[in-house]
Design goal:
The structure is a single chain. The protein is 41% helix and 13% strand. The protein is built from four helices and three strands. A three-stranded parallel sheet has the order 1-2-3.
């Protein structure tokens, strides 16, 4: 249902980069002119990005990347940011989930 959504959050991992299906789906997003919010998760780095992906600005899950992703989503959806007091706990929960999926990584706390 890619054509029905105004925004797609792409979680860029080693598995994502190795998946031909994901690359085809990414191409479909470009053809459909969808807004992308790409999140780069450790241990994947910008050095792992090849071809067209190397030219896309990635938001890193560590540091301020999650806050930047929230702002990007809010802008595309034309929605105000709310419940800011809940964000640190949600960020930490996401970081733990990513670490469980990708193995131990150095994830810095965001702002």
């Amino acid at each position: 249902r890619l054509k029905d959504t105004p925004l797609v959050i792409v979680v860029v991992s080693q598995n994502y980069l190795a998946s031909s299906f994901c690359m085809v789906e990414l191409g479909a997003l470009w053809v459909l002119d969808k807004k992308l919010v790409p999140l780069l998760i450790p241990p994947t780095t910008t050095g792992d990005l090849k071809h067209v992906l190397a030219d896309i600005q990635m938001l890193k899950v560590d540091g301020p990347g999650l806050a930047e992703a929230r702002r990007a989503v809010a802008k595309v959806l034309d929605e105000p940011l709310t419940n800011e007091s809940d964000w640190p706990a949600a960020d930490e929960k996401l970081r733990r989930a990513i670490e469980a999926l990708s193995g131990p990584a150095e994830l810095e706390a965001g702002p």
